């Protein structure tokens, strides 16, 4: 006995409407096509499933028995479709996120919150510097990129997340620590420990000094914010880093922010996708989560400036 799922659907619709024409409308078929499918089904089953009573068609005993199973099968089918849709949608998936080195101070916390709520989604997080992020956008490598400044020469969808102030840091016992409105000229002769060329932080620092008519020469270059902080604490020079990278050091008073004119350098974090790159529902969910969380983080970080 061969019964197709399509025949079950047709049988069920005819059973519920008790009318071939109405069933044909609901299934977007012609009435003769419906009649033929029912006839074939009855031949396959070897039993009559409907009988005419005047203008109505009603189920036979065999029809009623089949109807019970047909309803169960349809419900199961619907459940299967919904489950698969769900799996295809937000709750499962693999997302490639690339983020600027400096964003680890918040993106890891956001990722932890997201993963807790979305256990079926695996996020591969690649932490790298701005130069590599731009290359990845160029090559459609990452689903989502969290970075300082989106490159102007690529077609992108970019959304601002929150402020990213670059602050001037010194050891807590530095003579300028605690002073107000320090002129830039007072720090120009100081040694600086700064991020490597290719980083967004470095580009912003160079632009800032150029805009304010100062020449900037770094004494020491380092590839990570952590090395810069340790170097500054050790007395190797002043540093310019994102406020987001020094939360612990401010809380433990091992670093201080110098109140130099025109500082902090105002920057912003963005979440960026390449135009034309399809964003899976899982990636879309992550993006929305990060955008929503950024609003809370922003207030939290502003409080750090007051420490
Ligand atoms: P970076 O990027 O870690 O490469 O400096 C962050 C930024 O652009 O501010």
TrEMBL record:
<protein>
    <submittedName>
        <fullName>LysR family transcriptional regulator</fullName>
    </submittedName>
</protein>
<dbReference type="InterPro" id="IPR005119">
    <property type="entry name" value="LysR_subst-bd"/>
</dbReference>
<dbReference type="Pfam" id="PF03466">
    <property type="entry name" value="LysR_substrate"/>
</dbReference>
<dbReference type="InterPro" id="IPR036390">
    <property type="entry name" value="WH_DNA-bd_sf"/>
</dbReference>
<keyword id="KW-0238">DNA-binding</keyword>
<keyword id="KW-0805">Transcription regulation</keyword>
<feature type="domain" description="HTH lysR-type">
    <location>
        <begin position="3"/>
        <end position="60"/>
    </location>
</feature>
<keyword id="KW-0804">Transcription</keyword>
<dbReference type="InterPro" id="IPR000847">
    <property type="entry name" value="LysR_HTH_N"/>
</dbReference>
<dbReference type="InterPro" id="IPR036388">
    <property type="entry name" value="WH-like_DNA-bd_sf"/>
</dbReference>
<comment type="similarity">
    <text>Belongs to the LysR transcriptional regulatory family.</text>
</comment>
<dbReference type="Pfam" id="PF00126">
    <property type="entry name" value="HTH_1"/>
</dbReference>
């Amino acid at each position: 006995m061969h019964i197709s799922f399509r025949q079950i659907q047709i049988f069920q619709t005819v059973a519920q409407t008790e009318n071939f024409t109405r069933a044909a409308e609901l299934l977007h078929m012609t009435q003769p096509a419906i009649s033929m499918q029912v006839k074939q089904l009855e031949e396959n089953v070897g039993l009559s499933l409907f009988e005419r009573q005047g203008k109505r068609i009603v189920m036979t005993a065999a029809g009623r028995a089949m109807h019970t199973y047909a309803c169960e099968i349809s419900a199961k089918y619907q459940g299967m479709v919904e489950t698969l849709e769900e799996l295809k949608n937000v709750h499962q998936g693999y997302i490639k996120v690339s983020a600027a080195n400096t964003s680890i101070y918040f993106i890891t916390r956001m990722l932890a919150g997201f993963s807790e709520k979305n256990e079926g989604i695996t996020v591969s997080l690649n932490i790298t510097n701005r130069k590599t992020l731009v290359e990845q956008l160029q090559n459609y490598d990452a689903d989502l990129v969290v970075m300082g400044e989106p490159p102007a020469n690529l077609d992108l969808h970019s959304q601002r997340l929150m402020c990213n102030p670059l602050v001037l840091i010194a050891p807590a016992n530095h003579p300028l620590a605690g002073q107000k409105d320090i002129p830039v000229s007072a720090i120009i002769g100081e040694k600086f420990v700064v991020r490597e060329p290719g980083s967004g932080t470095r580009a912003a620092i160079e632009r800032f000094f150029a805009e304010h008519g100062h020449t900037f020469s770094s004494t020491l270059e380092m590839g990570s914010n952590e090395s810069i902080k340790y170097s500054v604490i050790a007395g190797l020079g002043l540093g310019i880093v994102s406020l987001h990278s020094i939360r612990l050091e401010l809380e433990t008073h091992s670093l201080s922010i110098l109140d130099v004119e025109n500082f902090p350098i105002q920057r912003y974090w963005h979440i960026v996708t390449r135009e034309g790159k399809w964003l899976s529902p899982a990636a879309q969910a992550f993006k929305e989560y990060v955008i929503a969380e950024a609003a809370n983080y922003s207030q939290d970080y502003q409080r750090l400036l007051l420490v």
